[in-house]
Structure formats: C-alpha cells, structure tokens
Amino acid sequence: MPVTDVQHDIDSRTLTIVADFAAPVERIWQIYADPRQLEKIWGPPEYPATVVDHDLRPGGRVTYFMTGPEGDKHAGYWQITAVDKPNGFTFDDGFADLDFNPNPELPVSKNVFTFTAHNGGTRSTFVSTYATAEALQQVLEMGVVEGASSAINQIDGLLAG
Fold first, then answer.
1. CATH value at residue 101
2. Which domain, by its residues, includes 35?
3. What percentage of the chain exceeds 70 in pLDDT?
4. Locate the Activator of Hsp90 ATPase homologue 1/2-like C-terminal domain: which residues (predicted)?
5. 106-137 burial, b for 16+ CB within 10 Å, e for fewer?
6. pLDDT, tens digit, for every residue of 109-129?
7. Strand 61-67 to strand 49-54: parallel, antiparallel, or no bridges (unpaired)?
C-alpha cells in the first residue's frame, strides 16, 4: 500500500498523509494534472469521481462529484492557490451542492500536496489544515482518513495499468 503514514493533530488542526510510489515525480504530477487520470484516484473506490472542470493553475478551479453505490452524488471543488509543477500545488478543498456552489455547513480545508524524489520513486505528502479543531474533528468523524487513504492507494493500480 502506498500510504505509509497518517497523522492528525487537533491542536494544529492538520491531517497529514504520506504515501510512497515507485514512479518519478513527473508521473505522479501527471495524475493530478490530467482530469481523466484524477478521476481514477480521487475518491475511494466505492465512490468514483467525475471531474467536471479542471483548471490546475493559480486562481483556477477543479469541480467534481463522487457517485456512491446507490447512485447518490456528492460534489466538491478545489480553488487552486499555487502551483509548482511538477513538485506540487496548494488549494482550498470544499464540499458543494450539485451546481458546485460551496456548502457553508461543511468545512473547507487548505491543502498542500507535495511530490519529492525519494528512494528512486516519489514521496507524496498531503497536508490539510482546517480553520478550527471542530472542523477537523467533523471530517475525521465523516471518515476522511479511510476515504483519502483508500483513494490514494488506487494510484499504484493506475501506475501499473
């Protein structure tokens, strides 16, 4: 499994996931830069993603929805704040309605995704920071660790295919 470490810190309001892949940094970057590849790894296997808009540049927006096993749809968005191709990017990640309007009742996280060369492959570090400890606790209770870990673990299959 690619995910090697998961830590959450209520005091700093952060969730950090580290994963290692047997692929160069540029290849991991391409997964996030290509909406069709991103669909294969964003969201856990039982909630596959459909990317609607994909503008991976500062000020750009990525919108998507995940479809559950019963056909239920859950939308979200990324508001891209910085890009350092191929080493990573930062974005605000939020929940949305099916028209991609932000859902103010659910937390928004500030995210830093970094990709660095490590042991002949890539170490990916995913850090999400929430405005409050309560917001972090809310997403933890919603299963963010399990969902994000199972989503990230799909990257090996995409790399092999």
1. 3.30.530.20
2. 3-150+152-156
3. 99
4. 22-159
5. ebbbbbbbbbeeeeebbbbbbbbbbeeeebbe
6. 999 999 999 999 999 999 999
7. antiparallel
